[in-house]
Amino acid sequence: MTSTMLIKNGVVIDTEPEPVVLGRMDVRIEGGVIAEVGPDLPETPRAEVIDATERIVLPGFVDTHRHTWQAGLRAIGPDITFDSYLRRIIGEIAPGYRPQDVCIGNLAGALECLDGGVTTLLDWSHAQFSPAHTDSAVQALRESGIRAVFGYCHGGEPDGFASESRRVREQLFDTPGLVTMALAAWGPEIMGEEHALAEWRLAKELDLPVTAHLGGHSRESAARGLAFLESNGLLETPTTFVHALHYTDEEFKRIAGSGGGVSLAPVDEMNLGLGYPATGRARAAGLPAGLGADTVVCAPGDMFGLMRATHLLERGRPDGAGLGFTTRDALRMATIEGAEVLGLADVIGSLRPGKQADLVLLRTDTLAMAAAHDPIGAVVLNADTGSVDTVLVGGRVVKRGGQLLHHDLTAVLTSLRESAGTVAR
What we know:
Elements: E1 4-14, E2 20-30, E3 33-38, E4 48-51, E5 55-59, E6 61-66, H1 82-93, H2 99-115, E7 118-128, H3 131-144, E8 147-154, H4 161-172, E9 179-185, H5 193-205, E10 210-213, H6 219-231, E11 239-242, H7 249-257, E12 261-264, H8 266-271, H9 279-284, E13 289-291, H10 303-315, H11 327-334, H12 336-341, E14 359-363, H13 375-381, E15 388-393, E16 396-400, E17 403-404, H14 409-423
Parallel strand pairs: 1-4, 1-5, 6-7, 7-8, 8-9, 9-10, 10-11, 11-12, 12-13
Antiparallel strand pairs: 1-2, 2-3, 5-14, 14-15, 15-16, 16-17
């Protein structure tokens, strides 16, 4: 990786504190970090120059919740219900996954993210049936080149939960890197209060944030689960509430007061019948809200589809209640707000100098993107994965000229197809 890089002549969009089009600007990167954003920055000797003419330059997208190992189960249940998903995918198919299936699923899923401009991923991994499964999942994330938070959800024997979680924390995440760890907790609404107590206490011991499916099942379980977490002081540990659909406005304010965040998967939540995304209410309560693909079993895996769905569902609320939601709100959720949810807002999510250079360059020399009067509107409403020309993670170019680098994609896709044919028999 060249220590100095200059991205020139692009239309630059920043996202902090709010999305704004800065206009035609240059971005200078030094040692993988954004050093300067401004017009006509001087070229320096030995700097790599990327010509961003007819390109939009913006921060990489942040996916706050994805079961990445399910990449080989794409569209296996396009019209599936939540109960059927639990029975078929989690109950029947998942136990047949071998470590190599988790590995290729994670590698292909992470590369899919990078190909679509997602530079940071929360991998909510609940196929951890053995230490070998876990080791394979983490290995694949690191091999992909993506920035990721590995959400470890113990899937083995219950009495091995604490010891295996400690092993993962101490052996696989003993040094800093692109891939970090969170505890993906089953939580009180799925596994009960006793197990949830052990999960949050262990997360605190290991200094890990928690990500859990909370508030997406029913109004009653949402209220009961939140009261349990509060009464036991568990929200002192940073917690992301995934599919937080059934909380009242007052409960959202309490979650915000605890420092928590929410992750919403608008396509899955509607398709699976979980409920209408609570985007507007959560954000009005002061909660950072990020977007997640969740699963490609029944949803798209790209951020463009998620931004469009969020924009549509919010603005389509009855009586115009969501018309205040804008394309800028959708882009903020996909970038800096997602970074806030993951506790990475000081690292990624915007073009603030000092942050990691996780960037995306989108083509505007296409029929779908040409002559756009509002670049932010075009990113949210018109762009797609085919618009993604160049992607950088920590200043390292992982996609250039519309092509992913560093991997034999033919081999990856062959392995993914072979795995899919085995696990989904």
